[in-house]
Each structure stands twice: as structure tokens, then as C-alpha cells.
Amino acid sequence: MDEEHRPLRTFGRIRSRPIKPRQAALMTTLLPQVATPEGPFDPRTIGPEAAEVWLEIGFGGGEHMAAQAARRPDILILGAEPFLNGVASALRHIDEASLANVRLHAGDARDLMAALPDACLDRMFILFPDPWPKARHNKRRLVQPDFIDDAARLLKPGGRLRFVTDWADYADQTLMLVRRAPAFDWLAMRADDWRVPPADHITTRYEEKRLGDCAPIWLEFARR
Ligand SMILES: C[S@@+](CC[C@H](N)C(=O)[O-])C[C@H]1O[C@@H](n2cnc3c(N)ncnc32)[C@H](O)[C@@H]1O
Predict the structure, then answer these.
(1) Would you call 172 a catalytic residue per the annotation?
(2) Which is catalytic among the residues 130, 146, 166, 192?
(3) 118-175 pLDDT per residue, tens
(4) Buried b vs exposed e over 66-78: b needs ≥16 C-beta within 10 Å?
(5) Nearest 5°: phi and psi at 32?
(6) Which fold has domain 11-223?
(7) What does the domain layout of the chain look like in residue ranges?
């Protein structure tokens, strides 16, 4: 993406406290081995045997991504996160569990998405994205019409997009935008479908902080 056409930044700081020595070492040794390729690539060339390819956007400390990868070694999981302390933490999870099925993009997920071919993903996860709750910051939210078009391009027919937030107006906004997009169906049939965490969800420490203004709202969409 050239600088002139770059969308607004959707994330806050990219580093906080100093990264612990062991994790800093993994940034040098392990990250190059598990980083997604530079430039356009097809994830099937990385994991030709993978039953499915999933993408987690904004994996934070990587707890959910790593636990899903451990649970499903048959799946290739791509993760994108610009927060370097989070990337370092994810590397620790990958190292400790010897995960061979995770690839990381240490940067903006939208750059990774632009590098992927059409209909290459089975699932996408956006879990507790930065809420940008002030009205003047809402435009920094990740989920925008262009983002939804990109997600629709990348998901296979029947592929799933999971979005969860504990900010009521972000859930409303996402629901409105995605339902307006002809490419997606919202799968909820009853209130518990958006009120109760899906059976395969893994809770993160960030989620447990409950920083939003409502209980988490779980939105699951299917690509038509
Ligand atoms: C509030 S945290 C939640 C982290 C994690 N999903 C969880 O539930 O524990 C949101 C994360 O999204 C990341 N993020 C924001 N915009 C992003 C983008 N465009 N691409 C990738 N990650 C992004 C932020 O850096 C931050 O780590």
C-alpha cells in the first residue's frame, strides 16, 4: 500500500515495556522462521497439507491463536499484529508448544490481507479489536466498508468471519456494515448465539479485563 493511499491507523502503540531477553532472542531467531513471506503469496504453498487456513487479526499476546493452533495441528493459522510486545509473547507460545502451524505478520493485517489471493481462507477472527470509542476516533476502527470487501474477497464460500467486541456501538456498527454487504450472512438464529461465547472460543487475558461498556457480543458471519 503506498503512503498516499494508506488507510487510517487502527492500532495504538507498537511497543510498551522492554521485551524480556528470552522473547527478544526469539524475535531474532524464531520470527524469521515463522514470518509470512514478503510480497504476495498463497498460504497453500506454506501448508499444502493443511486442512484449512485461518487468519487472526490483532492477536494481541497470541493466547487465542496459539491455543487454537495447538488444538488443531491440521490447520494453518496466519496471525497479524503490529504490537511488538504481543508478537514477542506469541513467539514464546509458539516456542513453548513447538507449534509448526502458525505464521506471523508483525504489522498491519491489511498489508497481509492485500498479499493474499482470493478465496484462500476458511476462517477469520477479529477478537476484541481496538474499540476507538470516542466519536472522533470511530473512523480508526478496523471494520469499515473497504475492510469488509477485503474479507469477502479472501474467504472461501461458506468461510466464517468471527467478530467479537464488548463495545455495544462497535457491535452495532459491524452488524450494520456486514449485513449491508451482500457477501455475508449473519448466522445468529437466537439471542444466545450472540450472547454466549462459541464452544471453540479461547478466552484471553485482555478479554477478561472487560474494558468495554457491555458484555461481549459474538458475531459469526458466513461468506455466501
Ligand atoms: C484490544 S487488543 C485485543 C487483542 C486480542 N485479540 C485479544 O482478544 O486478547 C486489539 C489488538 O489489535 C491490534 N490491531 C489493531 N489494528 C490492527 C491491524 N490493522 N492489524 C493487525 N492488528 C491490529 C492491536 O495492536 C491490539 O493488539
Answers:
(1) no
(2) 130
(3) 999 999 999 999 999 999 999 999 999 999 999 999 999 999 999 999 999 999 999 9
(4) bbbbbebeebbbb
(5) -60, -30
(6) Rossmann fold (3.40.50)
(7) 11-223
